[in-house]
Every structure is written in C-alpha cells, then in structure tokens.
Amino acid sequence: MTQPTTAPSLAKNKQKKDARDIRAEAAKIANSIKTEGQTPTETKAIANGIQRGMEMFLRQQSEKTRDLDKRTKKVKQLASQLTQQKIAEESEEIKVFHKQSPLPWVLLVVSWMLFVMVGVLSF
Hints:
The protein has three helices and no strands. With 123 residues, it is mainly α.
C-alpha cells in the first residue's frame, strides 16, 4: 500500500531537483570555459565555484521575493484598514443630525402676527 505524498516531501524533491539542475548547469559552464592543460580537478573546482555562485544568487532572489511579498502584504493591509476607517468616518458623518434653530419659525410667527394686527387695526 502506498502512502500519499505530502507537501514537504514534494518541496524536498523539488529542491533536490533544483540542486541537481544547478550542479549540471555549473558543470556544463565549467566545461565550456575549459582551457588547454586544465585538469579535471580544476574543472570540478571551477564548477563548484559556479554552483555556489548560482545558489547564492537564487537565495538572494528568493529573499528579495519574500521581502517584496511582505511589503505588498503590508501595503494591502494598510489600504484595507484605511478604507475601513473611511467607511466608518462616512457612516459617522451620516449619523450626525443637525438641530435646527427655532429662530426662523419664531420670526415667521411674529411677522404674521404683526401683519394680521396691522391689517385688523387699519380697518
């Protein structure tokens, strides 16, 4: 009975495959720049140096990618917080009721009373 493969084992297999690819590519580059009279040991040393350089480059790139992902996540988080704050402020502004002053109504009533009194007294 076979066990299902898990994500960590798949990641390890991929890492091993990448390491094998890097090793093979480094050997190919080392052989392509090989000079006359170079021993196989020297070629292997050059291939190892190229391999280390490639691995270091890939590590740096993955670190940059992780850093960029973290930054974009923070920006998205801040943007969502900002929109939530704007929505909350807008809802608070909508809930504010302005109490009207009774002064216009009092003046209207007084003016009509004066109009009626002037009209009654003039007859």
